[in-house]
Specification:
Length: about 150
Amino acid sequence: MADDDDKMGPRPEVPYWHLYVDEDGVSHQKQCHLTHYEKAAMGDADPQWNNEQEDVTSTVVFTEQPVGWVGEWHENPKPQWIMVMSGRWFIESMDGTRIEQGPGEFSLGEDQGCTETDGKNGHRSGTVGDEPCRLMCVQLHQDPDRSPCPDR
């Protein structure tokens, strides 16, 4: 049966932002999509769309950035998925691209190994608006992927 002919609907393509480093050591951001969804059950539940990522050890970190918080130029400590749970924040890469994200939006931060250029190294980030920003970070214990939009 075709994906869009059953109750599950078409195979998802979920957007995320990828913060990566080019061959010159400059950070960039590109909107990508998770596309490798397969129908599968988790445990005894009915089948659903799952996009299982590579099996690596990880550390989950919950953080709250207060109103007005700005993290000046820095690299992510490890490759990490970052999901906004509440509030808003921004991420600015070395190439000048600035994005904002709110609840339910997420990014993959892989800007390790940048080359400092004009006082910039990695990215800047900070809260937007009049409420704290709560994030869930899943830090991956693996090397960063240097290509934009790795196959996921």
